[in-house]
Hints:
Elements: H1 2-24, H2 29-39, H3 57-60, H4 84-103, H5 108-135
Amino acid sequence: xxxxxxxxxxxxxxxxxxxxxxxxxxxxxxxxxxxxxxxxxxxxxxxxxxxxxxxxxxxxxxxxxxxxxxxxxxxxxxxxxxxxxxxxxxxxxxxxxxxxxxxxxxxxxxxxxxxxxxxxxxxxxxxxxxxxxxxxxxxxxxxxx
Length: 145
């Protein structure tokens, strides 16, 4: 009885090993490169001041007399965050758009147009707002809707 159990366990172990090796060889070098790229850390963004010089991080960080950093000062944000109501409104807008598409009340072309408009806004909004602030058109802390 013990000899049969060992024979079957060895046979099943060999089959699982062969199966694992066969599945492991299914990925192409392109798939492996794409996977490695997804696992990489995002690129750091170097923030520059209005006059174009890199921001000195030491000037915003408080230090004790002995040189160690102090974490007592609350961090300041570059801009105000959206509040819960604004997030809820955006969520409702996106849900409504998806529901309209699913129900067929808007055409696929209109849906794609609205999605493209939202993606364009997401890509350009930060730079547009920054240029408005630099020109004095908006005060930091004010939100644009």
